[in-house]
Amino acid sequence: MRAASVPVNTRSYNERMTVHHQTFDVAVIGGGLVGKTAALALTQGGRRVALLAQTCASLPAGAAFDARVYALSASSQTLLERLRVWQALDLARLAPVYDMRVFGDAAAELHFSAFQASVSQLAWIAESSLIERALDAALRFQPNLTWIDSRAQGLEVKPDAASIGLANGSVLEADLVVGADGAHSWVRAQIGSKVDRRDYKQTGVVANFKAGRPHGDTAYQWFREGEIIALLPLPDGHVSLVWSAQTEHARELLELAPAQLAAEVERVTQSLLGPLECVTPAQGFPLALQTVDRLIAPRVALVGDAAHLIHPLAGQGMNLGLRDVDALADVIAKKEAFRDLGDTVLLRRYERARREDISALMIATDGLQKLFSVPGTVARAVRNTGMAFVGAQPLLKRWLVSAALG
Ligand SMILES: Cc1cc2nc3c(=O)[nH]c(=O)nc-3n(C[C@H](O)[C@H](O)[C@H](O)COP(=O)(O)OP(=O)(O)OC[C@H]3O[C@@H](n4cnc5c(N)ncnc54)[C@H](O)[C@@H]3O)c2cc1C
């Protein structure tokens, strides 16, 4: 055990926590949902954790729903249940998905159902801030967690510890650094992990609407002229839009007045859900595919979007990140007593455990995105015939559903 040194200007929610400790088992850098879940999983596993993050911002005044909404798979639900976060969620704000209807860009349509797949639901739709608030509440009660509201600026990996310089001037030491700092990860740059980034030249336009007709707990997806429009169910007859639009088109959509955007979404979805009323202003997120050559380095592991970035068409990026957390926590829980937390042998186990899942989802989402981007009638006929073929194969559909459930 290293000696604790100069006091650090940390902000701890727990009165019993001393802010004079500068040494930790793990330092989690980045407070998106993945980072906060990682910090919670590791501290519940008995580790002394420093989390560099901010608390969840409140929704803008008058906003009924968070603009950021996620489809969470069974694997994410299981992890959040184990961490006792799921149980704390306001169930009235969660929407189950029992059915999914996918419309090709010709006549083809695919229907997936939880009933046919013998599962309780295909996914849950949850607002980002709903989960984040529950995570914040859980983190607040962890005696071994120190919350630091500062950004990381310097990282030095030494044989006996990693040293992290903070924007507030303090320095932390930790056996292991978890880089959960998103797609433009600073941690990843420090370890020299090479990134291969392919811009989809698309922006994910998100907004929420009140629908005139019941959504029937169904998620809808339309493939249309190289763009993908999804309407996900939300409680109380609302739906959440994710429109993966070409950059220029997305710019136009983002400039529309709320009523105009609602009319446009209604038009392209052929009024399937009746008249729409925009209740959360639109926001845009640039879309890209990002692979990294290494998820680990001595004393460092990457999780979440810092480790992989995929197209949102399958709603799987967050689920993938939460599975990273699960795998890392599992490897650490099973570590031999003689091994240091930052031991490369240990971290390689994490990397090996994650490679296949990450590659499979990258290939699947990228493949689908490309398939529906190819212009021309022949390409359209081929992909819609493929959809019809999949639709007629109950076993294949079952397999696709189980793969998506994670
Ligand atoms: C339109 C759209 C729809 C999506 N829908 C779904 C869906 O339905 N289901 C799903 O599973 N996924 C979905 N995703 C993917 C999902 O949003 C991401 O995979 C997920 O948000 C990644 O979380 P993260 O915590 O890894 O990264 P982020 O959420 O990017 O968090 C990173 C955090 O690190 C902080 N940070 C950065 N640098 C530093 C530093 N130097 N020091 C300290 N902190 C730092 C940032 O401020 C930020 O808080 C969607 C994505 C998009 C774009």
UniProtKB/TrEMBL annotation:
Native source species: Paraburkholderia saeva
Record-listed E.C. numbers: 1.14.13.240
Cofactors named for this entry: FAD
Xref: InterPro entries: FAD-bd, FAD/NAD-bd_sf, Ubi_Hdrlase_CS, UbiH/COQ6, UbiH/COQ6_monooxygenase
Pfam family, one: FAD_binding_3
Name of the encoding gene: ubiI
Protein's pathway: Cofactor biosynthesis; ubiquinone biosynthesis
Keywords, in A-Z order: FAD, Flavoprotein, Monooxygenase, Oxidoreductase
Protein name listed in UniProt: 2-octaprenylphenol hydroxylase
GO annotation, biological process: ubiquinone biosynthetic process
